[in-house]
């Protein structure tokens, strides 16, 4: 049943991300035009500031699976219940702190954003900040239920809920935007859906998983052990927050809300890219923890790491190469000509992040082995360097400068350092990994040749023409990968569901 859940989780993950992409293709241009460039930039700016409060989680959510696996291996149900109780106390306390810190931020909003906003924008920013803080506060206790569902490998429910959330969000938001409620209406829907997800997870955990909480006999020693483990995860969250959010804040300070909006569109494409890549790796987290807990077999971990990495490459290779060839006309038609500079932003963010994305499972392997400390320390210095690099680049070339600063930090840390660290310290065979990835290179020749021809000889002027050429490119990519890149296992993964459909 676990295997079926994992397969269903992978399929629903990709289905969810596909739906999210399709919805974004339709919803985002409408939303951008209804909001306007300035208000969209304001929303992105406020969101980037509030998102720093997510750091209050201190990385504890990432430690749940590690300690759950320990108690489950020992058949210690009381230990699991005490773990649940400890996590609930921690996250409810964090929710309260989040609201208190958020209230202070609202009271000092002019000091945070400087003098670049109008009085009306400050007022809107206050309301947005208040609602986003409430939304964030609800996510903390939800982490306990969400982690429990992941630990039980109930991916079908988990991914289905995300899928429904992605579908309902734009359908509820658009009427409010049309009625003129703007970004406030958009955030209202987000907050409402967060509440619904919280209630749904609670219901599932209590009625299906029979989750138990014990608040007596909590072990202070366990809390200390958890903190030692999570501290470096927390440090890594700070780094991610700097890399993905500070750019918008700096742009808001030095270039205004319009520049934030341009960066925001490019960043949105990058966010979809990131989410799409983590869909498959997330469902293998329990398996990684199990391997480490039972045998800590590096050869087995390397094979799983490589298997997932190759599947990630197949998907991400199509998205990245397709966007390189068709991204510029797509953004102009999708978001509007005023967002044409977002293409450079998106490329600078998406291209360098591809390598760490196909290696996503490595992060979970580090955590399972409790060897994630060095990565966090190195990344911290790189993130700080990112800030100092980005400021002059923003003043020089605007939004693209912010993206370039982030790209430099990603190449230095996520690609160069991490591949050395996986090989030399974690014990992963990275030579084997890259040899397996390199087997896809011959399969990239045909689609890249088609893309170059289209770029140089075809003037793409409408969505229909863009869609036709995108389908042609996807078909060439898929066939080339199937015949010249995929191994037998990957071919079976593709053909298995097709054969089942044909039999019916």
What is the number of independent domains? Answer: 3
What composes the largest sheet?
none
Please state the average pLDDT score: 82
Class of secondary structure makeup = mainly alpha
Would you identify the regions where 5 or more consecutive residues have pLDDT less than 50? none
**Fraction of residues in helix:** over 70%
Q: Can you write the helix and strand succession as a string?
A: HHHHHHHHHHHHHHHHHHHH
Shape: globular
Count of helical stretches: 20
Q: What is the terminal-to-terminal distance?
A: 23 Å
* Count of individual beta strands: 0
Q: How much strand? A: under 5%
Radius of gyration in whole Å, from Cα? 23 Å
Task: Give a structural overview.
The chain has 504 residues and is an all-alpha fold. It folds into three domains: 37-218, no CATH class; 229-438, no CATH class; 442-504, no CATH class. Helices cover 85% and strands 0% of the residues. The protein has helices at 2-35, 37-50, 64-73, 77-107, 109-113, 119-151, 155-178, 182-207, 220-254, 257-282, 285-294, 298-334, 342-358, 361-368, 373-397, 399-426, 430-438, 441-457, 463-484, 488-503. Helix 2 (37-50) packs antiparallel against helix 9 (220-254), helix 10 (257-282) packs parallel to helix 16 (399-426) and helix 13 (342-358) runs parallel beside helix 16 (399-426). It is globular. The two termini are 23 Å apart.
């Amino acid at each position: 049943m676990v295997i079926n859940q994992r397969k269903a989780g992978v399929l629903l993950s990709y289905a969810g991300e596909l739906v999210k992409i399709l919805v974004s293709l339709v919803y985002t241009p409408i939303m951008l035009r209804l909001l306007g460039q300035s208000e969209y930039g304001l929303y992105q700016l406020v969101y980037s500031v509030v998102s720093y409060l997510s750091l209050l989680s201190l990385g504890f959510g990432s430690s749940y699976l590690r300690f759950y696996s320990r108690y489950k291996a020992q058949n210690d149900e009381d230990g699991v219940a005490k773990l649940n109780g400890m996590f609930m106390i921690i996250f409810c306390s964090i929710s309260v702190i989040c609201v208190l810190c958020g209230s202070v931020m609202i009271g000092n909003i002019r000091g945070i954003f400087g003098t670049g906003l109008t009085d009306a924008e400050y007022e809107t920013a206050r309301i947005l900040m208040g609602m986003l803080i409430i939304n964030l506060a609800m996510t903390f206790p939800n982490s306990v239920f969400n982690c429990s569902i992941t630990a039980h490998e109930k991916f079908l429910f988990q991914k289905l809920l995300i899928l429904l959330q992605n579908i309902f969000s734009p359908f509820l938001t658009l009427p409010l935007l049309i009625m003129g409620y703007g970004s406030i209406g958009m955030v209202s829907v987000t907050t409402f859906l967060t509440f619904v997800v919280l209630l749904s997870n609670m219901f599932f955990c209590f009625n299906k998983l029979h989750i138990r909480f014990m608040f007596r006999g909590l072990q202070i020693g366990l809390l200390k052990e958890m903190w030692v483990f999570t501290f470096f995860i927390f440090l890594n969250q700070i780094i991610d927050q700097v890399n993905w959010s500070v750019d918008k804040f700096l742009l808001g300070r030095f270039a205004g809300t319009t520049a934030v909006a341009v960066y925001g569109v490019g960043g949105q494409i990058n966010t979809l890219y990131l989410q799409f890549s983590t869909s498959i790796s997330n469902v293998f987290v329990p398996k990684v923890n199990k391997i480490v807990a039972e045998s800590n077999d590096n050869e087995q971990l390397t094979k799983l790491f490589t298997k997932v990495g190759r599947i990630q490459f197949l998907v991400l290779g199509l998205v990245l190469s397709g966007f390189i060839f068709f991204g510029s006309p797509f953004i102009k038609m999708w978001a509007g000509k005023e967002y044409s500079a977002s293409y450079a932003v998106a490329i600078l963010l998406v291209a360098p992040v591809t390598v760490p994305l196909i290696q996503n499972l490595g992060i979970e392997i580090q955590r399972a082995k409790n060897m994630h400390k060095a990565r966090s320390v190195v990344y911290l210095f790189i993130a700080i360097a990112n800030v100092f690099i980005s400021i002059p680049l923003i003043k020089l070339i605007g939004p693209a400068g912010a993206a370039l600063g982030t790209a430099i930090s990603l190449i230095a840390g996520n690609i160069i350092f991490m591949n050395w660290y996986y090989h030399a310290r974690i014990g992963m065979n990275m030579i084997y990994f890259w040899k397996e990835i390199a087997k896809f290179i011959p399969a990239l020749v045909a689609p890249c040749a088609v893309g170059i021809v289209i770029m140089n000889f075809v003037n793409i002027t409408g969505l229909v023409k863009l869609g036709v050429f995108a389908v042609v490119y996807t078909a060439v990519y898929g066939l080339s990968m199937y015949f010249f890149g995929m191994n037998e296992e990957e071919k079976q993964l593709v053909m298995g569901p097709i054969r089942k459909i044909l039999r019916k």
